[in-house]
Structures are given as C-alpha cells and as structure tokens.
Amino acid sequence: MKKLTIVSAALMAALTVSTEARAAVKVITSTQDLASIVSEIGGDKVTVEALARGYQDPHQVEAKPSFVLKLHGADLLVVVGRELEIAWLPALITQSRNAKIQPGNAGYLDASRTVRILDMPTGQITRAMGDVHPQGNPHYWLDPANGRRIAKAVEGKLSELSAADAAYFAQRYADFDRKLTAAENRWKGILTPYKGTKVVTYHRSWSNFAEAFGLDVVGYVEPKPGIPPSPGHQLALSEEMKRQGIRIIIVEPYFDLKTPNAIARTTGAQVLVVPPSVGGVKGTEDYIRLFDYNVDLLASALKTATGH
Amino acid sequence: MHNSSTLVRRFGVAACVAGLTLTVVGAAAAQTPPTPQNPQPAPAPSTDPQQLREEVDRLRKEFESVRDAYGSRLAALEARLAQIGGTGVPPAPPLPVEPPAAAAKPPTAPPAALPPGQVEVPAGAAGAGGPQGPLPVYGSATATSKIFNPDIAVIGNFLGAVGKNDLNPSPVFEMSEAEASFQAVVDPYARADFFLAFSPEGVEIEEGFITFPTLPWGLLAKVGKLKQQVGKVNTLHAHNLPWVDRPLASVNLLGGEEGLADAGVSVSKLIPNRWLFLEATGEVYQGNSGVFQSHQRSDVSWVSRLRGYRDITESTNVDIGASFARGHNDAGPDFHTNLFAVDATLRYRPLQRALYRRFLGRTELFWSRRDQEEGRVPAFGMYVSGEYQFSRRWFAGARYDWSERAYDASLNDKGPSLLLTFWPSEFSQVRGQYRRINFAEGVTSNEVLFQLLFSIGAHGAHVF
C-alpha cells in the first residue's frame, strides 16, 4: 500500500510537471541587439532569432520570403520601431500569416515605447532634410540606460505571454540589471577622461551613445541622412574638423570608407570602424560585449589622438 | 494645572528629541554608500566635492535646456491652438511631432484641458462684444480625426522618347502616370491598399484590395482589383519596373501595357516544409482583362501559381515560380485562352555592402494557347534581364525580348535593351533605356526612352 502511494504520488508529480512545462517562447527580433537583450531576459525559456545581421544597415534589409517563414512560426516579434524597419518589415508582417504578431496584438512588442528618444524633429519636417526619421532617432539602443529600459519592457512582455515563468524573468532582469550597472560604471570610468571630445560620425546613429558617454558629435560625413558624401560637403567638413581639432571619425561597418579615409588624410584624423550593433564585428556577440568593444576601441583611439 | 503644563513641556521636549533623532538617522541613511543591493548608476565612484559640483552644474544646465525646449514648444502649440480657434480652419502644415507617450495610442483628447473639438475664444476677443466661453469648431480642427488617415503617397512617372519607331511611337514627353496610394489598417482583421492611377486616359484603380492577414491554416486572402499572379512582371506596377517599358512578351501575350489586372479574389497558402519557402496561390477573376474577355457572368478567369524560394547563402537567393491561367477570350463565347508562365529570379546582395552592390537576374517564359475560329494558336514569348548596381546610386541593366503574337504565332518581335539608372535618393530615379525592336512587319525601331520617377508621402516598402 505504501509502495502504491509512493508510486502514484511520483506519477502525479511527473504528470503535473509535464503538463506545467511550457514550450519555449519563440521570439523573432528585427536586430541582433534586441535578440541579445531578449536572450538575457528569457534565458532557456525562449528561443530567439534576429532577422537583420549586425553588420548590415538596418534600414536596408531585403524583405526575403525566408523571413516570412521565420515570422510565421513566431510567438513574439520585437521591433526597434521609430520607422527604422519601415521599408521592409510591415510587408513581411502582413505576409507572415501569423495573427499573434500583427501590430497591436499580444505577440508584438515595439521596444521604443519606454526609452529615451533623441533628435525629435520639430517644425516642418520634409524630405529636403534627407531621409529624416520623423519619430526621433531610432538608434536608441546605444545608450546602456535604454538597454535597461528595453530589458524591462521585454521582461513585462515575456511575463505576459508566459505568466508561469514571470518570477524567472524577473530574476533574470535583476541579474542583467546588476551586470549592466557594473559594466556601465566600468565604461564610464574608462571614457570619463575624454568627456566632451568632439567627433565626427558617418551617419546620425550615435546620438544616444554620445549622450551616454560624454562625446560631442559635431558633424557627419553624410551631408544629410541617406545622401552620400559630396565633394563640397567633404571639403567643408574637413575645414571644420581642422578648425575644431577633431581627431576621430566614427564609421559603421556597412559604409564605404573611401570618403572618410580621404577626410582623414586631409585632416590627420583617425577613421574608426565602430559597430553600432551586436554582431557587427567579431567580439560583439552580446549587448554588454558590444559596449566593451566600442568603449575600448574609442578609448585607445582617443588616447593616441589626445595623448593622455 | 501644574501637572498638565509639565506634561505638555515634557511632550514637547520628547517630540523635539524624536524629531532630531529622525533627522540625524535620515541624513545618515541618505548618505549610505551604494551597496550591491541598491546600485546607483553614478558615473564616478569618488565623492570629490569639485566633481559633485560639476555634476550638479551639468544637471542644472541639462534641466534648464530641456525646460526651455518644452516651454517654447508648448508656447508654439498654444499659439497655434488660438490661431485655429480664431479662423476655424486648421493650418496646412502638420503639427509638430507629439511626444512618444501620446502618440503610442490614439489620444482620446487633445493635450489641452478642453474637450475635443473646442477651442478657447482668442485672447482679446472675449468681453469686447465677442463670444464667451469655448467656441464650437466644425470639421475637427484638432489632430484626433487625422490620426486614422491612411498612409498617402504619390509617385509621378514622367516618360520621354526620342528615335525612330514607325509602328507605335510614344510621345516625346508624357506625364504617363501619377499613382496615388492610400494604405491603412481597416480593423483587427484586415488592411486595405488602394493604388489609383491618374493618366492621360483618365483615372483608374490600378489595384485596390483588402488583405486578411490573420486567417488560419497559413492562408492570406486578398479581395478587390488585383494584378493577376501570372508570372512576376505582370504583378509589378509601372513605377516598380527595372525598365522604362514592359517586355514584349507581356505586351503581346498578356494584354497590352496594362497586363492582367481584374476584380476578384486571391488566396495563397504557405506550405511549410524544411527545404524552401513554398507558396501556392489560387485566384478567381471576373474574366475581363488583358487577353481575357467575359461574355456572361459565369465566364470567370482563374489563375493558379506555385512559388518556391530559397536562400543559397545569406547574400544570394533564388526564386522560381510557375503560373497557369485560363479564361474566355474575345474570339467568342466558347473560346478560351490558356496561359502558362514560368519565372526564375536570381538575387545577389552582400549584406555588409548592401548599399553599394547588388545583382538581379530574371527570366520569364510564357506559353499562350489561344482558341479562335481558325483553330488553336500556340504562341511563345520570353525575356531575360539583368540589373547590376555598381555604385551607391547607379544601376546598369540589359534585357533581351523575344515574343510571338497571341493571334498569330508566325509573327514575332524581338530586340535588346540597355539601361542606366541613377537614384538621387531613395525617392527619385532617372533612367535611360536604349531599345531596339525588330517587328514582325519587317520594321525596326531604334529609340532612347527616358523616365523620371519621383515620390512623395509615406515611405513605401522596398519592392523585393
């Protein structure tokens, strides 16, 4: 009788565990940065995949049918928003044949809703300003404080989709928060001596990063967003750089280095290929390592440029 | 009495002592250094007074600048609101972008404290014999009614032609088409897309359909006027073609410059499998478009298509499809035309250099079987085309056409084209095409065609 009780109890326990065990939440994100954060918060309760690679321009992703297949099987779609993916993602979502991830439904998370957005345009906005983002700068993940806010939003959404694992996600958020804070102190310590350094970037993707780490972006290699460099603008920029003593040009890995190199030769500045996204270069496999790589790269460049 | 005053005094002393203790304890607690339990995201671990002062100064400056920015924006909004209230007509330029929290969901009330649709009497007008209290505003001057406006875009297609073409010359300049698109979500179950073409011949619905993206079983349904999925080029709008004109095969065998576009229903199903993207589509149409003609209500035309797509590498992919279409034709009520089309597309676009380099190669083969009084006419047409991006804004292309005519397979037209396209930005293109056609009549045309495409409005999707 006792053996029977033990066996039946074990069977009950086994059955209960198996019925409560949930399949991992299948998450698709638009960029690898979001995928890294979702992976940090979700742990082994989620499977994550990013559509865009870290070394490609996230505005210019091809809406391939293979992405439709990925979206078809997703439980949750996390997007950067602020019109970063407007040229390719909406059509994929419509063709995905997945009711869960349609905007407004439970399986759709716009990570930009709770973050700090910079470069909100005011006044009349027209395309004379180039391919301007009317809802603000979408490269907001480059501020660790925003990384924390994205993680919080992801934690909330995952807990909503998988309520039984809410405590697990909360714990993982706390762990990530702690790791991120310690890392933030380290990064700010490395870059504090260079606070206020003026830099030039290729595209207007570094506003949040500059604000977080005290850099001052004073010019762009692109005359306007989405417009390739022209000789006139190149000349004006070189003159400005010489006048203000700007020694660093930050270029994303997907832009052509011909013009930045030419400017560097004229002004004596240094061209730095800095990845804005997880997976942009080797050594940036997750969100924290992206900043480790970028902060170290900038610090060593600034050291040689300024001499201290 | 003596007892109560002593009591009051003692109570007062006790209260003071308690207050002092609390203040001291509070001050001590506030100065607790950060522990692992309550991390502070402070930039510098040192408590050097000079650095703290600098930090406070920086924070104060930041706060002041943010306060000033929002203050001036608020003032501008108030002035505008007063302006609207005075004239009753909303100003033409769009309002400044609202903060993200307000734009996240359709606001139920404007930021001001007034109920929607009401504005205050302008300053100075109230009490001077003018109206009192909030003015009624007709036509909804606030932004709330505009929230649900569709995404609107207009694409202008300007054509030019020089050279010799004795058979069907196009005008030297032609504002061939202005395509206005209106796209928005209808309700939680559907979205709608309208593409209206304004051309010298008049206005017509190029495509206008409702899409149901939330159907089960991997289905996607579209109902409306649709471009029929017979091959690839037939589904492309004029402004999306990589050439100025349509290939001869499309013109001869599918039905003129318009191609096959008709009112009907299209349902496509995703067939999940491990190897490739596989999609099967079935469509039914009214039967009155291009080479099809319907003589009675039951003379519908239908299309079936199978499409497979596969990534070869992350930069290269191949897309192959086969379509079959059948409908009645203009030879008479009992005569049919069958169309069979095969298309293959090869794409190369390296991810890291995607801005600067891509290649698209495409070929389509068409077999037309037209029944008419004299018997069945089997006609064949094809084109092969390539486009290569060799610089950030420059594309070079070539195409070869060969096509028989649907009414008479002994007649065929053929010829090559060379193309050069320049994109000043994503929103405009300038294209030149040298085209030579050897017509079946023995005539040869040699032309240079020009095209200027320019779009305004909502950012459309890049065509894949």
Spatial strand arrangement across the major sheet of chain B:
3-4-5-6-7-8-9-10-11-12-13-14-15-16-17-18
**Using CB atoms under 8 Å apart, which protein chain pair has the greatest interface?**
A-B, 61 and 56 residues
Number of helices of chain B: 4
Q: Which sequence of strands runs across the widest sheet of chain A? A: 2-1-3-4
How much helical structure, as a percent, in the residues of chain A? 40-55%
Number of strands of chain B: 18
Structural class based on helices, strands and sheet pairing of chain B: alpha+beta
Q: Categorize the overall geometry of chain A.
A: globular
- Average pLDDT figure of chain A: 92
What fraction strand of chain A? Answer: 5-15%
Summarize the amount of helix of chain B as a percent range: 10-25%
Order of helices and strands of chain A: HEHEHEHEHHEHEHEHEH
Structural class of chain A: alpha/beta
Name the poorly predicted regions of chain B: 24-45, 86-112
* Euclidean distance between termini CA atoms of chain B: 95 Å
The radius of gyration over CA of chain B amounts to 34 Å
Question: What's the Cα radius of gyration of chain A?
Answer: 23 Å
Q: What oligomeric assembly is this protein in?
A: heterodimer
- How much of the polypeptide of chain B forms β-strand, as a percent range? 35-45%
Please give the largest β-sheet of chain A: 4 strands, parallel
Instruction: Give the number of helices of chain A.
Output: 10
Summary tags:
heterodimer, A: 308 residues, alpha/beta, four-stranded parallel β-sheet, 10 helices, 8 strands, B: 464 residues, 18 strands, elongated
Condensed summary:
The complex is a heterodimer of chains A (308) and B (464). By secondary structure, chain A is an alpha/beta fold. Chain A contains ten helices and eight strands.
